[in-house]
Each structure stands twice: as structure tokens, then as C-alpha cells.
Amino acid sequence: MAMKNTPHTTKKLTLVMKPEQRQQIEAVRHQLEQRGRRASLSAVAIALIERGLQHNAAA
After folding, report:
1. Distance separating alpha carbons of residues 49 and 35, to the nearest angstrom
2. Distances (CA, A) of 41 to 6, 19, 25, 29
3. Residue 43 Rama label (left phi>0; alpha psi -120 to 50; beta)
4. Chain mean position to CA 23
5. Is residue 28 within 8 Å of 13, Cβ to Cβ?
6. CB under 8 Å, gap of 24 or more: what pairs does 33-39 form?
7. Is 28:39 a contact under the CB 8 Å cutoff?
8. Alpha carbon 44 to chain centroid distance?
9. How much is the pLDDT for 1?
10. N or C: which end of the chain has fewer CB within 10 A?
């Protein structure tokens, strides 16, 4: 199987958050799992950050 030769950049992000923030992210993840969708904590955190950035940009 040949792999496509496309440029791909991955950057590592370390999030430092308060325990309350982690609990909120875990709660969202739990809601997704209740709907049958699995997601990592990092994927949920990134989605929430992106949503917040879009919301702030629209304001």
C-alpha cells in the first residue's frame, strides 16, 4: 500500500487547566459517549477551544 506524499505538520499541545475545566471536558466527553460517539479528552478539549475561538471572533 503506497502512502500519499502530502505535507503534514503535527504540533504537540500541552494544556494546563484547572480541575474544574477538566471536569467540564470529561462531562462533554461523557455526553458524547452516551450518544454512541467515542472521543479522546484531547479531541473534546480541542473542539471546545475551537468553538470558543469562533464564538469570540464572531463577537
Report:
1. 21
2. 27, 14, 7, 7
3. alpha
4. 14
5. no
6. none
7. no
8. 3
9. 44
10. N
pLDDT in tens, the chain (59 residues): 455 566 666 777 788 899 999 999 999 999 999 999 999 998 999 899 999 998 888 87
Grid coordinates belonging to 52: 470558543
pTM to 2 decimal places: 0.68
Placement of cell 470558543 in the chain? 52
Instruction: Name the grid cell of 40.
Output: 479522546
Q: Residue with C-alpha cell 475551537?
A: 50
Annotate 23-56 with b (16+ C-beta within 10 A) or e (fewer).
Answer: eebeebbeeeeeeeeeeeeeebbeeeeeeeeeee
